[in-house]
Amino acid sequence: MTVKEDLLYYLWKFGKLHLQNLQTSNKENIQIINLGTHNHHAGPDFFNAQLRIENQLWAGNVEMHVNASDWFVHHHEKDKNYDNVILHVVWNHDIEIHRKDNSVIPTLVLKDYTNFTQIQRYSKLMNTPKKWINCETEFPAITEFQLENWLERLYLERLEKKAAEIEILVKQTKYDWEAVLFRLLAKGFGLKLNSEAFFEAACSVDFSIIRKLSEKQQSLEAFLFGIFGLLSQDVTQEKYYDQLFREYNYLTHKFEYAEKASIPLHFFRTRPANFPTLRASQLATLYHQESNLFSKLITTTSIEDMYAILQVATSVFWETHYTFEKISPKRKKVLSKSFIDVLLINSIIPLKYCYERYLSKPNIENILALLRSITPEKNTIIQKFATKKITIENALQTQALLELKKSYCNTHQCLQCAIGNAILR
Predict the structure, then answer these.
(1) What's the whole-model pTM score?
(2) Which of 173, 219, 230 is nearest to 197 (CA)?
(3) Separation CA 68–CA 93 (nearest Å)
(4) Are both 412 and 376 inside the same structural domain?
(5) Residue 117 CB burial class (10 angstroms; 0-12, 13-18, ≥19)
(6) What is the domain extent for residue 257?
(7) What's the domain count of the chain?
(8) Could you report the per-residue pLDDT of 360-375, keeping only the tens digit for each?
């Protein structure tokens, strides 16, 4: 059976071993007083453990390896952070490890004190033939209450990751929160295929320009079309295109803007409703209609109010066009509820969380309530989880399940997962 260090961490951290009559590899009695705190960063695996070995009380760190010789594979003998290791916990004891003063570091061979049934469960979970997720046949193995708590924690982990990315933008813009919102919305309006192109262009612009242009919709639309690379096409005999092109050239001269779009836009494999032309026009309408957009979105606690603010349409020209040159049947093209949901989930709610934390007033319950009031997302991962006999009712759950799949299932972190723990129990 293949054993990984994760199993050793799990067995030690949760006391899943026979704690009575423990002995070192040299037959010295061990009494565990405190297992210590699991360290997820550089350094020994558990800090501040307390042990009694024979009649000597020890306080210090615990290091774990599958093979004792891994101590040298990881070059711990050269790292002073390991000088205070009081116990070496291993699965296979293939060599003695010594301190710098040549004294032996006591070693506990964990496989001698582990429940065999539990190891069988671990082997079944981790070493079965390749599946979509390891616990595919046993998911979920926890109660509905436990699953709800685990999904909430997973969403908060995902929220923290998004917040970390947003905080980089906050520092880059010198705490101009309106500018951060514009960059996040531009990325969101670009959707998957054009998100990076829209985001790069938004980051290249001083947001003060957007503020000034927002009073006149066509000027703002011309500028956004220009920076997104939508005015570099070979379009002939289209009056509106010429108007935008001339306006953009005038504005770049006026504001001394000389950046060029470097990421090409994609129309192919994109539904017409998601064409970058329409999304750029809708973004221009949003900033034309809503002054102080950041303040309005951040201060509201109602999901309905957020929908009302964001439900904007294109300019008139795009009611009969998807591209510059081809006329289509007239239709008012308003942001759909599902598209607004994507903006709320990925941009606005994480930004709201960041801003509240910046003010030292985070309202986690309101954040969770907002997510619970949004319709569940639809994608192949969520569809797969839906076959596992769990009820998926809102976007908090779908975001949590996406985090579960990406950060736990795909990386086989079953022993850090509440579902994996339940199976092993």
Answers:
(1) 0.82
(2) 230
(3) 5
(4) yes
(5) exposed
(6) 179-335
(7) 3
(8) 999 999 999 999 999 9
